[in-house]
C-alpha cells in the first residue's frame, strides 16, 4: 500500500447556485475512492479574474488525503466537474458551474501535457492563497514558489470577502 499524499483542491463556481455547487462538490470529494476529505476552508466571494461581465465567484480549498496517483485524481476531479454540469466553453476564462483545480499534490512538482502542479497561477491568485492559508500550517512551503506566508504578503486581498 502506498503512503497517502495530502492534496489541495481549489474550488470555484459562479453559476447555478455556487454555494450549493461547492457543497455538492465537497460531498463528491469525500466519496472519492482511496481518498479521505480531511479539511475544507471557509468560502470567499471574489471578483472574476478574466472577463468582468460574469457573476462573482465563490472560492475555497479542500484538503484530501489520497493514495490515488495524480492523474487518476485529476480524472476523478474532472468526472465530478462533468457530473455537475460543467461544459467546457470555447470562451477563455468564462463563467463555470464548477472548477476543481489540483493545486498541490504533496510536495511533488508535475509538468506534463495534462497536469501542472503546483497549479499555475496559485502564487498570484488571492482567491486561492487566502483559503489555502486557512487549511495549512503556518510554515507551509509551496514547491518552486517558496513560503505561503511570503506569497500572501505580496498578494492583496482586493475585494475578497469571507462568506459567513
Ligand atoms: N476568478 C475568480 N475570482 N475565481 C475563480 O475561481 C476563477 N476561475 C477561473 C477564471 C475564469 C480564471 N476566473 C476566476 O477559471
Query: What number of domains?
Result: 1
Assess the beta-strand content as a share of residues: 25-35%
Low-confidence stretches: none
Order of helices and strands: EHEEEHEEEHEEHE
Radius of gyration: 15 Å
The CATH superfamily label reads: 7,8-Dihydro-6-hydroxymethylpterin-pyrophosphokinase HPPK
Helix share bin: 25-40%
- Content-based structural category: alpha+beta
Bound molecules: 7,8-dihydro-7,7-dimethyl-6-hydroxypterin
Which topology does CATH recognise?
Alpha-Beta Plaits
CATH class: Alpha Beta
Silhouette: globular
Compute the number of strand runs: 10
Sheet of most strands? 6 strands, antiparallel
Count of runs of 4 or more consecutive helical residues = 4
CATH architecture: 2-Layer Sandwich
Distance between the first and last residues' Cα = 40 Å
Name its key features:
alpha+beta; 164 residues; Alpha-Beta Plaits; binds 7,8-dihydro-7,7-dimethyl-6-hydroxypterin; 4 helices
Report on the architecture of this protein.
With 164 residues, this protein is α+β, with helices and mostly antiparallel strands. The protein has a single domain (5-162), classed as Alpha-Beta Plaits, CATH 3.30.70.560. It contains four helices and ten strands; from the N terminus they run βαβββαβββαββαβ. The strands form three sheets. Strands 1, 2, 3, 4, 5 and 10 form a six-stranded antiparallel beta sheet that branches. A two-stranded antiparallel sheet has the order 6-7. Strand 8 and strand 9 (146-147) form a beta hairpin. The longest helix has 14 residues, at 70-83. The N and C termini lie far apart (40 Å). It binds 7,8-dihydro-7,7-dimethyl-6-hydroxypterin. 7,8-dihydro-7,7-dimethyl-6-hydroxypterin is lined by residues 12, 46-50, 57, 59, 93, 99, 127.
Amino acid at each position: 500500500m502506498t503512503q497517502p499524499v495530502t492534496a489541495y483542491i481549489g474550488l470555484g463556481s459562479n453559476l447555478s447556485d455556487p454555494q450549493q455547487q461547492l457543497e455538492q462538490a465537497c460531498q463528491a470529494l469525500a466519496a472519492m475512492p482511496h481518498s479521505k476529505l480531511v479539511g475544507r476552508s471557509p468560502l470567499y466571494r471574489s471578483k472574476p479574474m478574466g472577463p468582468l461581465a460574469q457573476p462573482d465567484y465563490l472560492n475555497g480549498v479542500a484538503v484530501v488525503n489520497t493514495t490515488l496517483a495524480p492523474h487518476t485524481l485529476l480524472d476523478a476531479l474532472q468526472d465530478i466537474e462533468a457530473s455537475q454540469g460543467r461544459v467546457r466553453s470555447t470562451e477563455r476564462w468564462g463563467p463555470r458551474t464548477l472548477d476543481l483545480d489540483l493545486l498541490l499534490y504533496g510536495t511533488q512538482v508535475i509538468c506534463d501535457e495534462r497536469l501542472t502542479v503546483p497549479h499555475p497561477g496559485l502564487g498570484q491568485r488571492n482567491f486561492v492563497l487566502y483559503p489555502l492559508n486557512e487549511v495549512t500550517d503556518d510554515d507551509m512551503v509551496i514547491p518552486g514558489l517558496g513560503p505561503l506566508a511570503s506569497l500572501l504578503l505580496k498578494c492583496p486581498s482586493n475585494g475578497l470577502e469571507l462568506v459567513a
